[in-house]
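Researcher: Re-running this chain for the archive, since the previous output was lost when a drive failed. Same request as before.
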Amino acid sequence: MPEFGDVDLSAIGAVLADDARCRMLLALDDGRALPAGRLAAEAGVAASTASGHLRRLLDAGLVAVETHGRHRYYRLSGPEVGRLLETLHHFAPRRPVRSLRQGTRAAALRDARTCYDHLAGRLGVAVMAALLDRGHLEGGDGRYDPASGDARAGFGRQVDYALTPAGHEFLDGFGVRVTPRRPAVRYCVDWTEQRHHLSGAVGRGLLDRLLELDWVRRAEAQRAVDVTPAGRQGLGELLGIEQTVFTRPEPAANMATRGPAEG
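Model: Regenerated structure tokens:
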């Protein structure tokens, strides 16, 4: 039997030590599967170059590939990769904003985005705070407290959040489906808000329901989400989320929704 020593962190570091590959991973951090051409555009590289980068990510186990007919789509290999990316957000320096387009994109990510398969940003934090205020969750107060050993993105000590009976009733009434194959309630420390946002099976179920109701829509070219007029009204009535959370203009009523080819 072969013997192994300690883990080789430098092997993963070498894969991540390329800006194009990191841009691909961030593009996939909303849980969708995207084609190689889209990932090449996100990374700003040619299709032939993107193929080599995707092979490195596949070999490292960071992404998986799906085949649909003649087309191949790539996604993160699992939620643990999403948690890794969220953790690295806290340590990586911020890119300077040098244009109006970059500023608009940065503001959109701060307002509302997906963190693998659940809501993040100001909206994600507001949703978790509302669930706590209404007694649907218990165990913490939504604040990040590093002095107490509060873990980032699911690593180390976790605040022990749990659904209350009222929370189960709320989810049933709102039509949220929670898969039993994963922990119901987890959280991440939101890297823009420095507070907790909800992950786990409940976080996934809530995002799925909001998309199903067309209260939120995935942005065209990034992991930001847009809150529709119906969503602004519905989230206010359902959870008391104030309109001040939604700082961006409302999306156009005739905005095209995503096609099935992008997951």
